[in-house]
């Protein structure tokens, strides 16, 4: 009766009421000391089992609760209480038995240790030699392609796509390491290189380089205040030219024109921000600082006019219409 009373008091101290939702919704397991509940005011004091003494500690009880629903209106609360060390004596007996068995096994094992030691040393030295040889071989097969891949990664970080390198030529031809993980890395690098190279064709190289190098600011939308020079150029009467030319000739004219004009802009440190059909939107002094950017933009415009003369000469020989461009600077 004393245990029942203190257990009931402990449950009420912990959950405050018998129909507490926490008590009904899940199983609980906790410990308490009956002597602390007899104090004024009562205290719910948890306790730990005494690992140094296999006897029972009657002042340290463990309580388990489980709420069981009989029907929609009736629930039973099943409570089990037992001393924390109730299973300690049996555990001690089992531990002594296990210790005795272990001691017998150890004694029998010592008889064979001497004989096994010599054989073990021989096997050890043999395996050591084989392991060293295997490790050197695998190390060579792994480290050599990884060193090459590391060099290519450093060049890729500078937007140098290493088309002239032997290492990249090997990867592009489909040659891979015989090590599966290294081969996957090589394949991933090739995909990454192609993706960055394609990305760099449509985004300023400085922006791509900063993204590749992990610049946090470059990976987020941001605005900075600076003075820039803007150029917009397009082909006069391009709509009529596009209507009159066959698709193949139109594609050739447009590709040739944009290639020449884009190259001139880049020579004068401009950045092609957008290609709008036949039009070019070009910035100077962003994202990189460009000294005398206004003068360089004007020089680029004049160079485009000069280059157009040579381009028209080429188009004339091919029987294609001559081009006239309009350039605006701000």
UniProtKB/TrEMBL annotation:
Transmembrane segments: 118-142
SUPFAM superfamilies reported in the protein's UniProt record: Nucleotide cyclase (SSF55073)
Gene3D superfamilies named among the record's database cross-references: Nucleotide cyclase
Keywords: Membrane, Transmembrane, Transmembrane helix
Record-linked Pfam families: Guanylate_cyc
InterPro entries: A/G_cyclase, Adenylyl/Guanylyl_Cyclase_3/4, Nucleotide_cyclase
GO BP term (any one): intracellular signal transduction
Domain Guanylate cyclase, residue spans: 229-330
Matches recorded under PROSITE patterns: GUANYLATE_CYCLASE_2
Protein's name in the database: Guanylate cyclase domain-containing protein
Species for this entry: Alexandrium catenella (Red tide dinoflagellate)
């Amino acid at each position: 009766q004393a245990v029942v009373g203190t257990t009931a008091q402990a449950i009420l101290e912990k959950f405050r009421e018998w129909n507490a939702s926490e008590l009904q919704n899940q199983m609980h397991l906790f410990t308490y000391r009956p002597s602390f509940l007899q104090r004024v005011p009562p205290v719910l004091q948890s306790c730990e089992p005494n690992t140094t003494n296999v006897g029972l500690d009657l002042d340290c009880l463990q309580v388990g609760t489980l709420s069981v629903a009989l029907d929609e209106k009736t629930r039973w609360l099943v409570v089990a209480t037992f001393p924390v060390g109730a299973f300690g004596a049996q555990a001690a007996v089992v531990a002594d038995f296990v210790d005795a068995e272990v001691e017998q096994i150890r004694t029998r094992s010592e008889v064979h240790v001497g004989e096994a030691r010599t054989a073990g040393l021989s096997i050890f030295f043999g395996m050591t030699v084989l392991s060293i040889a295997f490790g050197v071989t695998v190390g060579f097969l792994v480290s050599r392609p990884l060193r090459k891949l590391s060099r290519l990664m450093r060049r890729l970080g500078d937007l140098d796509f290493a088309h002239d390198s032997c290492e990249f030529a090997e990867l592009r031809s489909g040659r891979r390491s015989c090590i599966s993980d290294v081969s996957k890395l090589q394949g991933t690098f090739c995909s990454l290189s192609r993706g960055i190279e394609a990305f760099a064709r449509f985004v300023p190289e400085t922006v791509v380089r900063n993204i590749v190098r992990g610049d946090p600011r470059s990976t987020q939308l941001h605005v900075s205040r600076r003075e820039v020079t803007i150029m917009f150029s397009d082909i006069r009467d391009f709509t009529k030219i596009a209507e009159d030319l066959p698709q193949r000739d139109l594609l050739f004219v447009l590709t040739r024109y944009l290639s020449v004009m884009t190259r001139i802009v880049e020579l004068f440190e401009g950045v092609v921000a957008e290609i709008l059909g036949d039009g070019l939107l070009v910035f100077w002094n962003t994202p990189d600082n460009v000294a005398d950017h206004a003068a360089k933009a004007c020089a680029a415009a004049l160079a485009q006019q000069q280059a157009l003369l040579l381009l028209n000469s080429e188009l004339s020989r091919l029987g294609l219409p001559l081009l006239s461009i309009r350039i605006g600077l701000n």
